[in-house]
Amino acid sequence: MAPIAIQNASELTSTDFKQIITKSNPSVTTMKLTNTGIENTVEKTAPSITDNDPTTPINELDASKLIFERNNSPKAVPEPNSPELWAQNVCTDHMITCSWTSSAGWSAPYLKPYGPLSLMPTASVLHYATECFEGLKLYRGYDGKLRLFRPDRNSRRMLNSATRIALPEFDPKELQKLIEALVATDGEKWLPKSRPGSFLYLRPTMIANDNHLGMRRPNEALLYIIACLFPSFDTGRGTAGLDANPALREKERLGLKLLASKEDTVRAWPGGFGFAKVGANYGPSLIAHGEANARGFDQVLWLLGNECDITEAGASNFFVVWRTREGKVQLVTAPLGDKIILDGVTRRSVLELARERLNGQLEVVERRYTMCEVEEAVEEGRLLEAFAAGTAYFIAPVAKINFRGTDLEISTSEGDSGKYAAVLKTWLKEIMYGQKQHEWGVVVEERQLDA
């Protein structure tokens, strides 16, 4: 089932939370164990998001306790589209960390100089993949303001991921406050007003850092938040060969090239954890991704089962626009109910805008659909466009899909995009960069650092 629609994270109740964690097949014994374990963890680590009072007071995540330590050795900001940008490893001057233990709860968070973490070799995250993360962006608007795009959605999704991976819970609105504190501090320097239309990639992460090698629920965890320079992947020129000279990239063909996975290769499955943003979803896919890149493709289009159900394109949600044999134009994407795909913030926004503003032009459909259906639509001239959607890729048009050794060519009628992808991308960018005022664009007040 799709996560419940709550505008304010503080409105979460115990009933709501049970809806969030309910699986598609609750009759399976192992799923009952997982659900019960999640509910018990919420009661112990974040009772404020339930209706129940804790039996013993604990320290919950509290952004008001943030301690600030200035970085006295700040770095220079690289130039736009420089090699440092494409390296995707240059972070801003500060980071936020906050530790948790089962005995004491959450400690006071620290906003401190960016730097390495310290882990013991027996840390749980290194052995059992007890790790989850989020990805969102900070935008410098054309009106000079800094904005986050729907950060409440990312904060709630990280809570959902943490519950699935045996990590401690927290109030999502406190995580959002910490994200805002970091970008308020580093935003002015790293996204100067002289560079409107630029962005930083934000990565909130939680890991279990238990010094214990046994198989058990973690008793220690570390939350940290970093901000990193990232290139734009939504130009339609793909990402294969990111180590190439940026000037050469400009000559590449427009549109992503996707390699459809084989029937015996699976990214996620019903009853698994494909819906959670955990590292265990990504590590096993890197071999296939690397091979696809080596063959000239940008991403793997992940299929599921003998029917070749379409799930995701790399780490992005995947959309097609086609005309049915009856003549109806549809925007189609995979559903959330099977908990196979990620509830992408960009995905959700695309669907909501399409339903609100394109009503009458196309029908929005969330259902299982197969690669064979796409193949038939291409052969019959009914496939109008396809695109990937996610925080990193934003709205990236797809020009070609290789399925069972055959290249399926997909139209990009607007030059570097399809018609509907182009208009949806424009609407989203207007919100992100302040050209249109919208509740999804959350303005962040910048913090002036003393000289």
What does this structure look like?
- Belongs to the class-IV pyridoxal-phosphate-dependent aminotransferase family.
- This protein is an alpha+beta fold and 451 residues long.
- The protein folds into two domains: 220 residues, D-amino Acid Aminotransferase, Chain A, domain 1 (2-Layer Sandwich), CATH 3.30.470; 187 residues, Alpha-Beta Barrel (D-amino Acid Aminotransferase, Chain A, domain 2).
- It is 26% helix and 24% strand.
- It contains eleven helices and 19 strands.
- The longest helix has 19 residues.
- The N and C termini lie far apart (51 Å).
- The N terminus is likely disordered.
Features of the shown structure:
single chain, 451 residues, alpha+beta, D-amino Acid Aminotransferase, Chain A, domain 1, D-amino Acid Aminotransferase, Chain A, domain 2, 2 domains, 10-stranded mixed sheet, 6-stranded mixed β-barrel, 11 helices, 19 strands, disordered N terminus, EC 2.6.1.42, branched-chain amino acid biosynthesis, aminotransferase, Branched-chain-amino-acid aminotransferase
Q: In percent terms, what proportion of residues is strand?
A: 15-25%
The CATH class designation of the largest domain is Alpha Beta
The ordered H/E elements are HHEHEEEHEEEHHEEHEHEEEEHEHEEEHE
Task: Provide the gyration radius in Å.
Answer: 22 Å
Structural class determined from secondary elements: alpha+beta
CATH third-level topology of the largest domain: D-amino Acid Aminotransferase, Chain A, domain 1
Q: Could you say which overall geometry the principal axes of the C-alpha atoms support?
A: globular
Number of helices: 11
Q: Kindly report the average pLDDT value.
A: 87
> How widely separated are the two ends?
51 Å
Domain module count? 2
Stretches where pLDDT is under 50 for at least 5 consecutive residues are 1-29, 236-253
By CATH, the superfamily of the largest domain comes out as Aminotransferase class 4, branched-chain amino acid transferase, N-terminal domain
Quick one: biggest sheet? 10 strands, mixed
Organism: Lepraria finkii
Pfam families: Aminotran_4 (PF01063)
Catalytic activity: L-leucine + 2-oxoglutarate = 4-methyl-2-oxopentanoate + L-glutamate; L-isoleucine + 2-oxoglutarate = (S)-3-methyl-2-oxopentanoate + L-glutamate; L-valine + 2-oxoglutarate = 3-methyl-2-oxobutanoate + L-glutamate
Protein name: Branched-chain-amino-acid aminotransferase
